[in-house]
Amino acid sequence: MKSSSRLFTIGLVSAWYSSNIGVLLLNKYLLSNYGFKYSIFLTMCHMTAYSLFSYVAIAWLKMFLKIAALNLVFCVSVVFGNVSLRYLSVSFNQAVGTTTPFFTAVFAYIMTFKREA
After folding, report:
1. Does residue 102 lie within any of the structural domains?
2. Does 104 reside within a domain?
């Protein structure tokens, strides 16, 4: 792998982690400390941004059906995540989120009968 490609990948992963942490902490702050009561509105803001970026991907990559399915799953995930932040601590929310790779591997095995390396 070229070093410029490796740096680009590291940059993308770092940006993804940073944005996820930032959004999570901002949502928790708004919902708990600030007293914001409209978790569905936050979800709408997430979905608007996600839709705009998805539109770019659809127009550029011509992957409409795959992205539409991803949008639906992501929307449900964000709704439940934002609602849960009203009742759970950020640390517990993150602890539950760390189980995602395990369940992803389990469901991938169930669906494809292939083991992860």
Report:
1. no
2. no
Residue 79 lies in a domain: yes
Answer for the pair 83, 77: CB distance below 8 angstroms, yes or no: no
Contact 42, 50 (CB under 8 A): no
- Measure the CA–CA gap between 83 and 28, rounded to whole angstroms: 10
- Cα–Cα dist 79/43, whole Å: 6
Structural domain tally of the chain? 1
The pTM for the full model equals 0.52
| 9 is a domain residue | yes
CA distances for 78 relative to 16, 42, 46, 60, 75, angstroms: 15, 9, 8, 25, 5
Distance CA 58, CA 51 (A): 10
Report whether 31 contacts 59 (CB < 8 A).
Answer: no
Q: What percent of the chain is predicted at pLDDT more than 90?
A: 0
